[in-house]
Amino acid sequence: xxxxxxxxxxxxxxxxxxxxxxxxxxxxxxxxxxxxxxxxxxxxxxxxxxxxxxxxxxxxxxxxxxxxxxxxxxxxxxxxxxxxxxxxxxxxxxxxxxxxxxxxxxxxxxxxxxxxxxxxxxxxxxxxxxxxxxxxxxxxxxxxxxxxxxxxxxxxxxxxxxxxxxxxxxxxxxxxxxxxxxxxxxxxxxxxxxxxxxxxxxxxxxxxxxxxxxxxxxxxxxxxxxxxxxxxxxxxxxxxxxxxxxxxxxxxxxxxxxxxxxxxxxxxxxxxxxxxxxxxxxxxxxxxxxxxxxxxxxxxxxxx
Length: 304
Hints:
- With 304 residues, this protein is an alpha/beta fold.
- It has twelve helices and eight strands.
- The chain is 37% helix and 14% strand.
- The relative contact order is 0.13.
- The model has no long low-confidence stretch (mean pLDDT 96).
């Protein structure tokens, strides 16, 4: 159980002086992971994307830890190499201090471009945490659809029109794909539930071996919501069961939050401009898919 009052006193590895967009939840994701890692020496790997660009505008940086920038596709490979080098130096007695290794990447650099290096790092068993800040598109390069983009979303490469109603495919279930690598720990989190997030982040950091955290990170430009409503978007995603909160520990699935009253997906969809074009039939199709996924998750978690 995280103690927010105590954690607020910690020196976090991402400063408040960054240049992310107003209303962006990606830096909230990083700061919550920073709270989870409080008191530890950390090396961060950062894939190209909004987070990297806006926190390191030359000659400034918002990072207060060892930090490595990589291309979209190889953040996981790089941080796994740093972890391997650290272990070699420890064996030779050249490094005395303990370090933890965390990689951050957006959904474009994780679900799609970086999947091969992420999969390799997880399969090899490196002692590292990979955190995906999932904002549902390639936001940094112009709001193009990604493997994380929900069905029907309007993006610059899946524009909604009279013929095509936005993206025509369902989003990829990346968390389940990571679980299939037989890693010790995987979880889905959302900043609207901070205690759940920080608790899972600490578990991921403490585990011996690879861990994966998939964090919802709404984007005001891509999702088209008011900048003050980012955390509310997270809560709507969780309470509609579009983004359920769970963890998988050594193959055992556990639901960590169950809404007292499951809200209709329309509450989430109608709050965003990217879904403004949806018809009642589309919303019903979306609801049916979310219901199927939720029931399947309940069975996996022994909650059915």
